Amino acid sequence: MLVSAMNTTRSGRPALTRPDGTPVRVLVVDDDPDLAEVLSGALRYEGWEVRTAGDGAAALTGARELRPDAVVLDVMLPDTDGFAVLRSLHEVKPDVCVLFLTARDTVEDRIAGITAGGDDYVTKPFSLEEVVARLRGLLRRAGMARQAEEGPRITVGDLVMDEEAREVSRAGRIVELSPTEFELLRFLMRNPRRVLSKAQILDRVWSYDFGGQAHVVELYISYLRKKVDAGRQPMIHTVRGAGYVLKPVL
Amino acid sequence: MLVSAMNTTRSGRPALTRPDGTPVRVLVVDDDPDLAEVLSGALRYEGWEVRTAGDGAAALTGARELRPDAVVLDVMLPDTDGFAVLRSLHEVKPDVCVLFLTARDTVEDRIAGITAGGDDYVTKPFSLEEVVARLRGLLRRAGMARQAEEGPRITVGDLVMDEEAREVSRAGRIVELSPTEFELLRFLMRNPRRVLSKAQILDRVWSYDFGGQAHVVELYISYLRKKVDAGRQPMIHTVRGAGYVLKPVL
DNA sequence: CCAACCTCTGAGGGATCTCTGAGCCGACGC
DNA sequence: GCGTCGGCTCAGAGATCCCTCAGAGGTTGG
Lengths: 250, 250
What we know:
2 copies of one chain form a homodimer.
Chain A: E1 25-29, H1 33-45, E2 49-53, H2 56-66, E3 70-74, H3 82-92, E4 97-102, H4 108-116, E5 120-123, H5 128-141, E6 153-156, E7 159-162, E8 167-170, E9 173-175, H6 179-190, H7 198-205, H8 215-229, E10 236-239, E11 243-246
Parallel strand pairs in A: 1-2, 1-3, 3-4, 4-5
Antiparallel strand pairs in A: 6-7, 7-8, 8-9, 10-11
Helix pairs in contact in A: 2-3, 6-8
The structure holds a DNA duplex.
């Protein structure tokens, strides 16, 4: 019988692993150290091995040493631009996945070139849920998903989410959700039966530069309830003074 | 009043240890020496090895020497801010868990991203039970729990508490509890068959700045009895002149 | 340029929680 | 027996937490 070391995330979920069972390796390249720190924290939380770099030169060194499966790459770097780094990266490791971080006003045609190569991008300011989800998608499509259960769909009770199709259904009936509602529900569904505080939700679902109050979370929970729980047995529960839980109906 | 420091390991319950069986190591960073002392007393009471530091520089030195598994870190430090310390800590020891202490009014300020990495925070004024519980949660998720049976749930007789789902059930039936009731019961359940004085309970379950009387403890014990013991064989017993005990029904 | 949609702010109101005060009861000592 | 003390419970005030509505401002797509 084949026994491999069980690789789990800090959250207790089974981690997405490389074909040989070792953790996925990701290189984070951003010149803002705070942002790099937050990103690498979120990725380590997924059970992945992370290394950071602050500029293009460091990125290449890091890539040679870590030999990452994926790279999170800021387009704006102090020494070079992201596309030059991309070319060098592909020389070092041709099959690496790249997730670009771009400013909102980055030129369109350059982005078109990215997605054509199978890579992906997110625009700043982004939410951590989105970055993690995109990375998971890239890795999965690159054949990195060793999990049978780690498909593109999440199921909690009779609630089903297809991440790729961005489609949610409860008891077979399609539920239409706005982008924020979708991300909030995804976060809840990836952490079922666990109480999530409003701060946790804010940190994870809202952009890192969101300055607003935790009140928005209440508001969006109320939207979700109207759409997901409407008339049915409620799955979204409030835990007063603590946060919210998503629980399948028993 | 504040609980006095105790250096003994709590008897009757196996301490949470590192994978190699040595005690968990925690660094406490706060510029208020009284608070640091109270905290380290509570953590030593858990059987953990504790060291304190008063500012960011001392925190780094301490981290390098102690190589802690977790750090309790005040966001407001005389020399640096929490984010910078977090980054340095992760450089010293990438897998360290951090529990931030923040004032209530700075909550919205810059917590963003902190809980995203799997780290956590509590707002001042906090209760020691809460700090210890959060730390235990962090350590458990980081794979530090060499627990024999130290899972996310505590069991005493037919009474079961799931800390992550914040759910309590007696004989299979869900019991709804308010935040304070929950913390009080958690404290009782973590110390079964042991008489706990009202002063002990106050020091541990209520915030350190609570100025009220021990009468509240009686009141909350009475609430708990109504919900937990309701109609069943009582598990919560009064020891006149000494305190309360939680005992499984024989 | 307009319409539809999305996101967020602010305010109101309702439900729940916490704690105080007071009365009651039983245990214990004299 | 009787008073005292410790503990239990009820009732209610005040605070807090949470939900919802209404609408402003921004974005998107036609």
